[in-house]
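Notes from the 1:1 (GR / supervisor)

We went over the backlog. Supervisor wanted to see one worked example end to end before approving the batch request, so GR pasted a single chain during the call. The sequence is below; no edits were made to it. Supervisor asked that the structure be written out right there so they could see what the output format looks like.
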Amino acid sequence: MQQDTQPGELLEAMNKRLDDGDSRMGRIEDGLAANTEATKRIESNTSDLVEAFSNLKGAFKVLNWIGKFARPLGYIAGAIAAVVSLYTAFKAGTTIK
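Structure output shown during the call:
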């Protein structure tokens, strides 16, 4: 800072800097408010999608459990079908040549 600056000029410069900072802070607050509004709008628009994906995740878990049980049940059903087929073949008197 220069030595020949008058106290009035110094005070005026400080006030200008404070006013500039105040206007800058106002612009930042306005931008932040707009950003917050947009974020809330996006959240409300996507909440249904998030819920749907969460439900699908649960549905895939259930389908996975069903798949784990279906494989052994398929083996059991196949074995029962083979036994019933053999029983029916023997009952009908079918012979193997």
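Supervisor's comment: The helical segments are 7-92.
Batch request approved.
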